[in-house]
Amino acid sequence: MAVSGSSSRSTLIVQLSPTRTAKLSFTVQLILTVFWLAWVIALLLSSNPESSQSFMHYIFLGLGLAFLVYIILQNTSVFGVQSYIEVTPQYIVQKFGVFRKKQVIPIPEIEQVYISPLALRVTRKDGAKVYLDLKQVRKKRDMEKIKAKVRHMAPEHGYVVTNATNQRS
């Protein structure tokens, strides 16, 4: 993913794929929502406009449209990148979706980074440990870019990098 602006060389942003932990897949949610909307529209077209029930049909239509927008936001990048890992000289950010909080780790507060094949475990100077999951990174090349960027910044910012093979770099 390309980064615009003058700081494009020092900033790395990697888009994450949607989580696959939902009880119903995106396709099933989308099909159910389309059936829901079709059913409500059929009810609206077949009912009497002066009926007291038509008000409820409009409420169900609004809820169906809201749910459709929600599942599209959570599972696609139609409205821009929603899930990403960003590594800059000032901080590391991990965000897992539109309605979820960002996890921000300022670089000056990092004491040690343990790099495993699918995660980064960051130990802060206050002793707190932060786990950054890399399982959703789409491409192996992007995962390597994240790890290389963290390794590259270590000497400059004075934190220790330990790899899963117990080698320090």
Automatic annotation (TrEMBL):
Transmembrane feature ranges: 26-46, 55-73
Record's keyword annotation contains Transmembrane helix: yes
Native source species: Pontibacter ummariensis
UniProtKB keywords: Membrane, Transmembrane, Transmembrane helix
Name recorded for this polypeptide: Uncharacterized protein
